[in-house]
């Protein structure tokens, strides 16, 4: 599926500390086509369609659920999955991003930067893994 944006009000490219664009966009208002969205019939029968026959079925079953996404460049995202495609391009809502910066000196130095976004588009080529949140995440970020 190819993604095509029909209209958008504001999309800001997020940049890394070096000023280079990173693999996702902050979305404030957007309409999208060709991303998988669960229909009302699928939402009502979601509990009955829990069969996993291929890997993308695990992602399909996570629609409208909170998920954990591990990204390249030591970034982790936690948010509600709204849409995705076969390339793992995703739209997440209510997102928290944690970036871990590690500098190896005489003493190992680790810093965590946290940001939140109301809506985020994630480019699939930066995704390492997608999973349901851990039990700890569920306690911190209840539905």
Automatic annotation (TrEMBL):
<protein>
    <recommendedName>
        <fullName>U6 snRNA-associated Sm-like protein LSm3</fullName>
    </recommendedName>
</protein>
<keyword id="KW-0539">Nucleus</keyword>
<dbReference type="Pfam" id="PF01423">
    <property type="entry name" value="LSM"/>
</dbReference>
<dbReference type="InterPro" id="IPR040002">
    <property type="entry name" value="Sm-like_LSM3"/>
</dbReference>
<dbReference type="InterPro" id="IPR034105">
    <property type="entry name" value="Lsm3"/>
</dbReference>
<keyword id="KW-0508">mRNA splicing</keyword>
<dbReference type="InterPro" id="IPR010920">
    <property type="entry name" value="LSM_dom_sf"/>
</dbReference>
<keyword id="KW-0747">Spliceosome</keyword>
<dbReference type="GO" id="GO:0120115">
    <property type="term" value="C:Lsm2-8 complex"/>
</dbReference>
<keyword id="KW-0507">mRNA processing</keyword>
<dbReference type="InterPro" id="IPR047575">
    <property type="entry name" value="Sm"/>
</dbReference>
<dbReference type="GO" id="GO:0000398">
    <property type="term" value="P:mRNA splicing, via spliceosome"/>
</dbReference>
<feature type="domain" description="Sm">
    <location>
        <begin position="54"/>
        <end position="136"/>
    </location>
</feature>
<dbReference type="GO" id="GO:0005681">
    <property type="term" value="C:spliceosomal complex"/>
</dbReference>
<keyword id="KW-0694">RNA-binding</keyword>
<dbReference type="InterPro" id="IPR001163">
    <property type="entry name" value="Sm_dom_euk/arc"/>
</dbReference>
<dbReference type="GO" id="GO:0003723">
    <property type="term" value="F:RNA binding"/>
</dbReference>
<keyword id="KW-0687">Ribonucleoprotein</keyword>
<comment type="similarity">
    <text>Belongs to the snRNP Sm proteins family.</text>
</comment>
């Amino acid at each position: 599926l190819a993604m095509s944006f029909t209209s958008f009000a504001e999309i800001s490219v997020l940049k890394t500390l070096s000023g280079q664009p990173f693999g996702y966009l902050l979305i404030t208002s957007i309409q999208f086509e060709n991303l998988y969205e669960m229909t009302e019939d699928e939402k009502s029968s979601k509990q009955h369609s829990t069969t996993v026959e291929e890997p993308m079925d695990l992602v399909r079953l996570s629609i409208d659920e909170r998920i954990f996404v591990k990204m390249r460049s030591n970034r982790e995202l936690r948010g509600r999955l709204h849409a995705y495609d076969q390339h793992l391009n995703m739209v997440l809502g209510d997102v928290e991003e944690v970036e871990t910066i590690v500098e190896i000196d005489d003493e190992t130095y680790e810093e965590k930067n946290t940001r939140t976004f109301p809506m985020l588009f994630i480019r699939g080529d930066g995704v390492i893994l997608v999973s349901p949140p851990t039990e700890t995440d569920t306690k911190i970020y209840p539905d």
